[in-house]
Amino acid sequence: MVTTKAVIPVAGMGTRFLPATKALPKEMLPLVDKPVIQYVVEEAVAAGLSDLLLITGRNKNALENHFDRVAELEQALEAKGDSGRLFQVQESSQLADIHYTRQGDPRGLGHAVLRAKSHVGDNSFAVLLGDDVIDSRDYILERMLQVHEESGDNVIALMQVPKSQISLYGCAAVGFQHAPDVYQVSNLVEKPAADSAPSDLAVIGRYVLNSEIFSILEKTQPGRGGEIQLTDALEYAAANPDVAGGVRGVVFSGRRYDTGDKLDFIKATLRIAVDRDDIGSELRSWLKDFAKDL
Ligand code: G1P
User: What is the pTM of this model?
Assistant: First the structure.
């Protein structure tokens, strides 16, 4: 069956970006002129997913407003004949069928995903983490959906990182290589210490899951940080493939930004901005001058 649903957890507090995120959801911070969440939604839509569920929390109303129509603004732009901006304003409200549910207690990523159970039903579904932005030139979700359709396994995206950074991520040990970019996952650990990590393969925020993962999540005990971890549910799936299917990892080697991290956020802004038609060439020459003085 073709996967059409995506779940996008966006309930996190954004503490790394305080004070900017005191009143503004971190997913509304703009990369150039589009909020982070729109890049993530566009990626889901580009992979053919049309039914999106955002798992939100308190103070996240701006996200719903962003994907809604704003009649007064559209009328004002229309009256001015500003068709370019009118298109941009309308585009975000026409991207997909977007639904919202609240997480309630912030009990971890696994708990956030579990909130999607009734919306998802018996379908397989994708999960895209709301502050992981994959550059549109390097999208991987379509490939992951293809691997899922062919194998029936759960599929996660993996990226090689320096061992010193593995403690920031879920970490996967892999076994059989199914294709140049696809491995069977044999073991998963959430945020291991560098010296006990089973590999240098980090789980990045893209998943394609079977609906049976919900019954595993319901039984998953709080893990790292006292939270219910999606990584732990996937670890169970990898060890018990008869319950919810096994786990395959697709290795990603493109451009990915953790927009919850200040330095990565600035790098993402620059990477995107230098390729923009409107400001790219001016920014490039300014950056060259600027770099001379560093
Ligand atoms: C979450 C997951 C982790 C994954 C990471 C990717 O952690 O729990 O396994 O590697 O996203 O960004 P978080 O960054 O929300 O702490």
Answer: 0.95
